[in-house]
Write a structure and sequence with these properties.
This protein is an alpha+beta fold. The protein has four helices and four strands.
Length: 122
């Protein structure tokens, strides 16, 4: 499933095993918001999509990478590592991407806390 392009399209990058991701999913459902779901561990983002997502978030990948995940640690990286190396580890190991992320058109928000995604609904 491609990242949305229209301002009325919402896509939740979701990991059903993550409590914050489940809470964000529930929050959107409770508000009656229509959205699509992409389980990014099963359908990983491409390198190009990750670059696109960084632009929508308005943050470099170093700010939305999970630094304690085993593949990140094993790679010997830190947030100040070369952006290309960070991109490579997330592309190969999507578990290293922060979650959940709600995308609406050209903008995105990390749901930590889950209520942060509500900014996209205004």
């Amino acid at each position: 499933m491609a990242l949305p392009t229209a301002p009325d399209e919402l896509l939740l990058l979701h990991n059903p095993r993550c409590s914050k991701s489940r809470a964000t999913y529930s929050l959107l459902e409770e508000r009656g918001v229509g959205f699509e779901v992409r389980e990014y561990l099963e359908d990983p983002l491409t390198r190009e999509e990750l670059i696109d997502l960084a632009g929508r978030l308005g943050k470099p990948l170093s700010e939305w990478i999970r630094k304690r995940e085993e593949p990140f640690v094993k790679a010997g990286l830190d947030p100040g590592s070369d952006p290309e190396a960070l991109l490579e580890v997330v592309a190969e190991h999507p578990v290293c991407m922060e979650r959940p992320i709600l995308i609406r058109g050209s903008k995105a928000r990390v749901g930590r806390p889950p209520e942060d995604v509500l900014a996209l609904l205004d």
